[in-house]
Amino acid sequence: MFLGISAVVAFAAPGATATAYTLIAVTAFAMGLRNATVRKLGVPDLTTTVLTMTLTGLAADSRAGGGPGTRSPRRTASVVAMVAGAGIGAWLVLHHGLGIPLAVAAGLVALLAVTASGRE
C-alpha cells in the first residue's frame, strides 16, 4: 500500500524537492513494516534489508566455511533476487524516473502478498 502511495506521489509531482523527501519517508516506513512482518513470521536466516548479513550467513554456513551448507539455496536465491532487483530498479529509475519503478514494486508486492497469504 505504501509503495503504491509513493508511486502516485512520484507521478503527481515529479522532480519536486518535497516529492523526494516524501518518497524517502514513505518508502522507509514501508521497508520498516516489511522488516517487522518478516520478523513476526519468523522466516529463518533471511533478512530483507541487510544484504551483508545474508552474504555473511551464506559464507559462514557453506561447506567451504566449515558449515553444513543446508540453507545455501535459499540464501543464494535471496542474493540473486536482490542483485537482479537492484539492477532492474536502477535501469528503470535512470530511464523512466521514479514513478514506474515504484508502481512495479507496488504491483509485485501486492502479487506476492496475495500469493503467499494463507500459507502459514
Automatic annotation (TrEMBL):
<protein>
    <recommendedName>
        <fullName>DUF1275 domain-containing protein</fullName>
    </recommendedName>
</protein>
<keyword id="KW-0812">Transmembrane</keyword>
<feature type="transmembrane region" description="Helical">
    <location>
        <begin position="76"/>
        <end position="94"/>
    </location>
</feature>
<dbReference type="Pfam" id="PF06912">
    <property type="entry name" value="DUF1275"/>
</dbReference>
<keyword id="KW-0472">Membrane</keyword>
<feature type="transmembrane region" description="Helical">
    <location>
        <begin position="100"/>
        <end position="118"/>
    </location>
</feature>
<keyword id="KW-1133">Transmembrane helix</keyword>
<dbReference type="InterPro" id="IPR010699">
    <property type="entry name" value="DUF1275"/>
</dbReference>
